[in-house]
């Protein structure tokens, strides 16, 4: 029942008041200013931490303070002083050239980010984005953000932190910039008081790139909250906070008030912060201590020290090359009593994968000389952070601690804050040795060393260069070049290439089974286990292989693992390639405590790539929490490995993917899936097919590949046919190409945008030369819809002529007779003077079409240029051949379209003057035998003239009348191409019976059954803002009066939401709305008609949009009829309709009588109550409120019809 408008407004107001009341009650918190934006939720709803550069929805342990810019800028402000500034933006809001095609949060064009556009000036300019005031960052605080650089590059990106009068550079880079979103992680260190973070981009005349910023996260930034009592083994700070006992006197303010680092508590510790020199330590040549500002600008040199977290602080730094490490020596030490002598130190490795820091112990036994013992080793790239570590030494003899550091080109190894515990005693009077200290023993990759260059591996008389190490193709006779590449059972102490790179509280350690206390079945041997570590930064444990690759499509990793962590934790494997990580495997949540065997398909990857083990385990949780891996074996990883199945190109995907394999060059993949409620296969309707989901979670790649291995051709020409499904309001592009390594790929076929909710067959002829590979490439240039493949077949011989041709990838086997005057071109390539500015398929200058120059110099008057198709198969039923043509404004002559079936010819002649638009031509075709179509240009001898053809299509059924369509065979001449500036969305075509993920009518209007078809648009995909989808007719001639009739359907679940359907007339004069309707819950077909008039050639446009917030609901159209030159007639009412109308009026009249009686009784009751002094009325009627009236709708027996007086154009 419809509620009266005034009563509805009152209810909405009451609901709003109640909602406000609940908000006031649930958030009575008013925290002081100094407690706001400090990463601690003082209010129950964390409202004191909003608009602080981050938002918090549900604060919990380990949850970062995040801003994804989806709702607002979270307090970030543009402080640029030039015309280049930061704005909150999204890809779908840009008609052309967005800063980023997707955001990082959602991975689609609906997500928001902060962006600054392309620089067009000549002067250098800085765009600066500044956070609001933030307070009190803890020592382990990390700032994570994602950055995207496009349209070339930028001169410099910089992240700075301003604290009091000091500005600290957290990160800066001048490129080069990789494509796509890249993660940046920096540590702020302990910041006392207020601070701000500023992200800036510098551009100039030669560096004009656009920049986007998304998903800013602050991790582990809050200081510990005060507590009445502390857990066992913890220290109670002076400010009542609790910290772990090992955090005392570790060089960091963990309490927040400095009480854990005060001089009284730490007076017995020997601290060397390098502010005034080396302290008790000595060094040999190769080392030098310096201020961080002394490093070359733009190098890997630290921007700040650890002690003061300041660019003015000092630290020790080494840039020594491998083979000549810098050495730092402690005084002779003795552990006091039964206690350990502990060393805490902070190290920095950045700028080179060859950087190495080693800590060795040299003991002095009476009468003996022992070699140094390696206690700790860090190798590779650890980022721009100072990482904490600790060693505990128990020795009955005096000892020295030796720290050595060396690095590769451009790298830096740094040390700061060497802290010896209070149980370390310096032996007085012992002079450190002045002879060169022995180097630490390192594993040798080969027992025989020959005359090889640095970095090369010597095996017998062969020198293997670095690029051939771990390439899965052994060069050495014993395979030594493939030994340290990740295949291992961990029985060797070297771990066969796996190296821990953790910087937090967990690490990967090679452990004996007897020591682990892990799985009960692990009685002997070694494995890689997650153990505690002394790092202070990110908690997860990480281990990396050396650089690997290239790998082949069959590459697999076999391994055994155990994993148990409650309630949180994970164990995963990632592929690190080109600076990005792709998750390829993850253990099921809290798996069994016993060992489990599994395998992971890695697939084909370019060199260099690495494997990374990542684990997070709560070792303090109940039970035997832990994670470990063992028996890791890489199999069939050589690119030369082939199988019999690789030759199986023909495939219906029912049992497997045959010879087709996934490309792993991006994180977007095809998936073999089974038929389900929103999609079915082509083979049986219940089987399997290959699916690409453009909105796949956590995917940000631009394309996915489905490939074959190089094939040996059985004939010079082969026909590859397949069935494809492109359906959805914003689906991307599917391409088929042939390629060989090192050569440019040859495009064979492509389809863009929705082709309706059905399977279509396509084919392409492969002209072989050597051994090519074939690939299907799915582009994520749309994010809503289904992209699917099924029933791929390869047969010898050429394919027949295709049923549709857009000329985007080829000429579709059309041949130009005579002098070859017809040519395939795009106006963007510089040929616009002899052809249209845009094609019809894409309506852009980059789109292709076929064109012939009919100027006298190219084609004299009366001469003919022909364009002939390949043979088409015979037609089992009548069909319609449609094509779009474009004639120059100067009379080019006559375009003749001829269908040739043996000796029978059927010709259509077009000899009109051209214009600025593409026009639709059609021919009915009936062919019992093979036939061809020929486009002939008969020149008129006029300068600067041409004829062009695009989008040739053959479809079943008769040809529709201009502007009319029942949608049973397709969209007829109506174009659903996404219109620029409207968000890139398209109308679609479907039936009620075909599975689809989108809401739509259950039956059509034409047939009234589930099998009937209609055009529809799902408005739920529309985001905030003015976005819409257009369905456009072909150009129609000017008219004084014509009638447009159509049936429409709307269905929206909520009363407050509604879709809107408008009819527009679009011409050179602009746009004119001639009809509009908003729909809510109306699950029925409604008839409408509108009278149109235009003095110019025009197009009819149906525009679907939303009148409220985004909500799922379909708008559908069917049985569009354009009656040229005819006025719309008022609908006549049949006797049956009259009877139904009378019955409806009788029912309504009866209801009115009943309501009148109720009203009279109500007034009588009110009068009685008033006389008795009873209750008053809760709602008083306004004196000037208008009386209610019936909607002007005629009720028929089976539908509702709007009268012509309502729907016609006045």
Automatic annotation (TrEMBL):
The keyword Signal applies. The keyword Cytoplasm does not apply. It holds the Pfam family MAM. It comes from the Eukaryota. InterPro entries: ConA-like_dom_sf, LDL_receptor-like_sf, LDLR_class-A_CS, LDrepeatLR_classA_rpt, MAM_dom, MAM_domain-containing. Disulfide bonds join 230-242, 237-255, 470-485. Residues 65-223, 270-426, 486-639, 649-801, 803-961, 963-1130 form the MAM domain. Keywords: Disulfide bond, Membrane, Signal, Transmembrane, Transmembrane helix. Residues 1-23 form the signal peptide. CDD domains: LDLa, MAM. The chain crosses the membrane at residues 1139-1163. One of its GO terms (cellular component) is membrane. PANTHER family: APICAL ENDOSOMAL GLYCOPROTEIN, APICAL ENDOSOMAL GLYCOPROTEIN PRECURSOR. This is Apical endosomal glycoprotein.
């Amino acid at each position: 029942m419809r509620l009266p408008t005034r009563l509805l407004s009152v209810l909405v107001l009451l609901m709003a008041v109640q909602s406000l009341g609940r908000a006031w009650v649930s958030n009575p918190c008013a925290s002081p200013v100094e407690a706001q934006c400090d990463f601690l939720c003082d209010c129950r709803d964390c409202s004191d931490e909003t608009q602080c550069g981050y938002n918090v929805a549900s604060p919990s342990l380990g949850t970062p303070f995040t801003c994804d810019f989806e709702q607002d800028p979270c307090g970030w402000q543009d402080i640029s002083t030039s015309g280049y500034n930061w704005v909150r933006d999204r890809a779908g809001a840009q008609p052309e050239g967005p800063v980023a095609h997707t955001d990082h949060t959602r991975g689609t064009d609906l997500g928001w980010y902060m962006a600054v556009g392309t620089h067009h000036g000549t002067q250098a300019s800085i765009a600066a984005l500044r956070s609001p005031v933030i307070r009190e960052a803890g020592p382990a605080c990390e700032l994570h953000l994602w950055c995207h650089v496009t349209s070339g590059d930028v001169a410099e990106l910089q992240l700075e932190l301003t604290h009091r009068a000091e500005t600290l550079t957290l990160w800066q880079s001048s490129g080069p910039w990789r494509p796509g979103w890249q993660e940046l992680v920096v540590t702020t260190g302990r910041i006392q008081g207020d601070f701000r973070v500023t992200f800036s981009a510098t551009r100039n005349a030669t560096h004009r790139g656009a920049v986007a910023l998304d998903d800013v996260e602050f991790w582990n930034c809050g200081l510990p909250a005060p507590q009445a009592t502390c857990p066992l083994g913890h220290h109670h700070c002076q400010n009542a906070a609790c910290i772990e006992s090992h955090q005392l006197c570790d060089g960091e303010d963990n309490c927040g008030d400095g009480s854990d680092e005060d001089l009284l508590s730490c007076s017995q510790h020997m601290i060397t912060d390098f502010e005034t020199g080396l302290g008790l330590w000595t060094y040999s040549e190769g080392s030098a201590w310096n201020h961080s500002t002394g490093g070359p600008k733009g190098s890997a040199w630290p921007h700040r020290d650890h002690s003061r977290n300041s660019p003015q602080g000092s630290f020790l730094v080494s840039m020594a090359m491998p083979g000549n490490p810098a050495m730092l020596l402690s005084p002779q030490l003795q552990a006091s009593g039964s206690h350990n002598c502990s060393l805490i130190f902070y190290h920095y490795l950045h700028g080179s994968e060859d950087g190495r820091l080693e800590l060795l112990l040299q003991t002095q036994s009476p009468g003996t000389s022992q070699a140094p013992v390696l206690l700790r080793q860090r190798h590779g790239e650890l980022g721009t952070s100072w990482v904490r570590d600790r060693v505990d030494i128990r020795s009955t003899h005096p000892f020295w601690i030796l720290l050595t550091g060396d690095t590769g080109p451009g790298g830096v190894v740094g040390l700061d804050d060497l802290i010896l515990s209070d149980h370390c005693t310096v032996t007085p009077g012992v002079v450190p040795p002045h002879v060169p200290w022995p180097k630490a023993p390192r594993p040798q990759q080969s027992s025989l060393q020959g005359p090889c260059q640095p970095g090369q591996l010597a095996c017998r008389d062969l020198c293997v260069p670095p690029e051939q190490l771990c390439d899965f193709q052994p060069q050495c006779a014993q395979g030594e070049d493939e030994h340290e590449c990740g295949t291992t059972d961990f029985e060797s102490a070297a771990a066969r290439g796996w190296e821990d790179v953790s910087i937090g509280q967990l690490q990967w350690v090679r452990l004996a089974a007897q020591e682990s206390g892990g799985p009960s079945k692990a009685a002997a041997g070694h494995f890689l286990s997650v153990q505690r570590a002394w790092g202070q930064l990110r908690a997860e444990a990480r281990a990396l292989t050396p650089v690997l690759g290239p790998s082949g499509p069959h590459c697999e990793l076999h391994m055994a693992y155990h994993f148990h962590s409650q309630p949180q934790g994970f164990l995963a494997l990632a592929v690190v390639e080109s600076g990005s990580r792709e998750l390829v495997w993850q253990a099921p949540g809290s798996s069994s405590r016993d060992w489990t065997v599994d395998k992971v398909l890695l697939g084909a990857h370019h060199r260099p790539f690495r494997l990374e083990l990542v684990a997070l385990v709560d070792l303090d949780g109940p039970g035997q929490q832990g994670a470990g891996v063992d028996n890791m074996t890489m199999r069939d990883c050589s690119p030369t490995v082939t199988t019999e199945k690789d030759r199986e190109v023909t495939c219906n995907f029912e049992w497997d993917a045959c010879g087709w394999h996934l490309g792993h060059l991006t994180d977007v993949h095809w998936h073999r899936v089974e038929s389900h409620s929103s999609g079915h296969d082509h083979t049986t309707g219940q089987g399997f097919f290959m699916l690409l989901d453009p909105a796949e979670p956590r995917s940000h790649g631009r394309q996915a590949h489905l490939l074959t291995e190089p094939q040996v051709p059985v004939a010079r020409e082969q026909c590859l046919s397949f069935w494809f499904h492109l359906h959805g309001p914003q689906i991307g592009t599917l391409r088929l190409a042939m390629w060989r390594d090192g050569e440019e790929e040859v495009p064979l076929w492509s389809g863009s945008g929705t082709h309706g909710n059905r399977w279509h067959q396509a084919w392409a002829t492969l002209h072989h030369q050597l051994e090519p590979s074939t690939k299907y490439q799915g582009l994520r240039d749309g994010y809503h819809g289904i992209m699917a493949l099924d029933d791929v077949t390869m047969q010898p011989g050429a394919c027949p002529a295709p049923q549709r041709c857009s000329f985007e990838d080829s000429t579709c086997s059309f041949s130009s007779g005579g002098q070859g005057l017809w040519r395939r071109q795009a106006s963007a390539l510089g040929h616009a003077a002899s052809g249209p500015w845009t094609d019809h398929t894409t309506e852009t200058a980059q789109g292709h079409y076929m064109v012939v120059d009919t100027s006298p110099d190219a084609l004299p008057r009366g001469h003919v240029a022909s364009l002939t198709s390949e043979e088409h198969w015979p037609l089992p039923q009548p069909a319609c051949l449609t094509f779009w043509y474009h004639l120059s404004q100067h009379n080019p002559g006559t375009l003749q379209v001829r269908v040739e079936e043996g000796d029978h010819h059927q010709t259509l002649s077009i000899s009109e003057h051209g214009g600025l638009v593409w026009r639709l031509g059609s021919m009915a075709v009936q062919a019992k035998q093979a036939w061809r179509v020929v486009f002939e240009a008969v020149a008129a001898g006029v300068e600067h003239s041409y004829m062009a053809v695009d989008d040739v299509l053959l479809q079943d059924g008769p040809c529709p009348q201009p502007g009319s369509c029942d949608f049973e065979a397709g969209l007829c001449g109506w174009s659903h191409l996404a219109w620029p500036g409207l968000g890139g969305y398209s109308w679609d075509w479907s039936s009620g019976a075909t599975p689809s993920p989108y809401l739509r009518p259950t039956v059509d209007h034409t047939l009234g059954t589930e099998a009937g078809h209609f055009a529809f648009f799902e408005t739920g995909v529309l985001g905030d803002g003015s976005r819409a989808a257009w369905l456009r007719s072909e150009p129609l001639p000017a008219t004084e009066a014509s009638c447009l009739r159509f049936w429409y359907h709307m269905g929206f679940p909520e009363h407050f939401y509604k879709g809107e359907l408008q009819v527009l007339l679009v011409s050179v004069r602009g746009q004119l709305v001639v009809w509009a309707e908003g729909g809510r819950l109306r699950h029925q077909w409604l008839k409408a008609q509108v009278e149109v008039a235009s003095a110019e050639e025009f197009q009819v446009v149906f525009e679907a949009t939303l009148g409220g917030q985004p909500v799922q609901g379909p708008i559908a159209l069917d049985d569009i009829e354009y009656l040229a030159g005819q006025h719309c007639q008022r609908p006549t009412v049949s006797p049956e309709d009259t009877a139904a109308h009378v019955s409806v009026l009788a029912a309504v009249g009866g209801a009115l009588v009943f309501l009148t009686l109720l009203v009279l009784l109500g007034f009588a009751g009110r009068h009685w109550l008033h006389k008795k002094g009873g209750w008053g009325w809760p709602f008083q009627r306004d004196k000037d409120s208008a009386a209610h009236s019936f909607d002007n709708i005629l009720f028929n027996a089976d539908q509702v019809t709007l009268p012509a007086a309502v729907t016609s154009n006045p």
